[in-house]
Amino acid sequence: MKKAVRNTAFALCAGTLCISTIMYRTGVSRKLYVLPKLMKLVQTRSAGQQQFEKVRHVYNEGCDWFRSQGSELKKLRSFDGLALYADYLPYPGSKTTVILCHGYRSTGLGDFGGIVRYIHEQLRLNILLIDERSHGKSEGSHMTYGIKERFDICDWANMIAREHPDHKIFLYGMSLGAASVLMSTTTDLPKSVCGLIADCGFTSPDDVFRSVCRSMYHLPPFPFVDIAEVFTKIFAHFDCKQCSAAQALKNNDIPVLFIHGGADDFVPTWMSRENFAACRSEKELVIIDGAYHANSYYVDFEKYTDAFGAFIEKHGTGE
């Protein structure tokens, strides 16, 4: 009997550690090794992916357009020594620059391919399309959910301010990029940053880990997320509770446009509502009905761009 109990306890502990390791690897580590192959065996296409497939041609056309424009590759060194890269596409005569910050395991074009041409040609803005740390051309082995990315965004904004001291700057983020943009308000952003646009941003790394544990793994967050967060401290050298968008916004004085898909089941819509409630600066919240995660501008381009364009005109162009 005692042996059976010991074996059962060992199996439960081993299973818990295995699941927590998978959460840590998929959530934080740049290298997934065999995990993608294993996950494909059990994954089905989500409703959000199916929604995106219907407009993939719009995305492809936008990506092809951007690649044909001959953008300039920019580079900077992060506070912790990583080489970070971005593509800069100026609009002739424009003195307003928007820094585009993509989300989890994505790319600049991956998240903004369907709207980048509108930003450049219709709004006539300069574009800095960054590769977040541990993504694309940029160095790094771990994603930190805004804890370190906020300082990278600050560095990009300060680079633009140094190179173009007469430019006004907007920070525009998607998902992880949106949360990072909101958290960047705790850093030394240049005074030329005049607006933030946060599309489907989460409240905090800890909140989104726990939400994903429930929605994707169908498991209670405790103890799996708690163990995974210990791994992030040991191996990725950051604390998921060190900073949050909701807390940062309580001391923010930069105008914010919050956007979220009403059907988002990855970063729930309530997170933008909570960020909106916490924000003390001038703010606006736009919910795109029926849009899944990061699909809002595909679902209702007119509503999205009306809000986006009006925000830019109100807070930045002045040209």
Order of helices and strands: HHHHEEEHHEHEHEHHHEHEHH
User: How many distinct folded domains?
Assistant: 1
Distance between the termini: 80 Å
Q: List the strand order in the largest sheet.
A: 1-2-4-3-5-6-7-8
Class of secondary structure makeup: alpha/beta
- What is the level-2 CATH architecture name? 3-Layer(aba) Sandwich
Number of strands: 8
- Number of helices, where a helix is a run of at least 4 consecutive DSSP H or I residues: 14
Describe the structure.
- The protein is of the alpha/beta class and 319 residues long.
- It has a single domain, classed as Alpha/Beta hydrolase fold, catalytic domain (Rossmann fold, 3-Layer(aba) Sandwich), CATH 3.40.50.
- Helices cover 46% and strands 16% of the residues.
- It has an eight-stranded mixed beta sheet, sandwiched between helices.
- Strand 5 (168-174), helix 8 (176-183) and strand 6 (193-199) form a beta-alpha-beta unit.
- The model has no long low-confidence stretch (mean pLDDT 92).
Give me the secondary-structure topology.
Layout: H1 2-28, H2 35-40, H3 47-53, H4 56-67, E1 72-77, E2 83-89, E3 96-101, H5 108-112, H6 116-122, E4 126-131, H7 149-163, E5 168-174, H8 176-183, E6 193-199, H9 205-215, H10 221-236, H11 245-249, E7 256-261, H12 269-278, E8 283-288, H13 296-299, H14 301-315
Parallel strand pairs: 3-4, 3-5, 5-6, 6-7, 7-8
Antiparallel strand pairs: 1-2, 2-4
Helix pairs in contact: 1-10, 9-10
Tell me briefly what this model is.
With 319 residues, the chain is α/β, with parallel strands linked by helices.
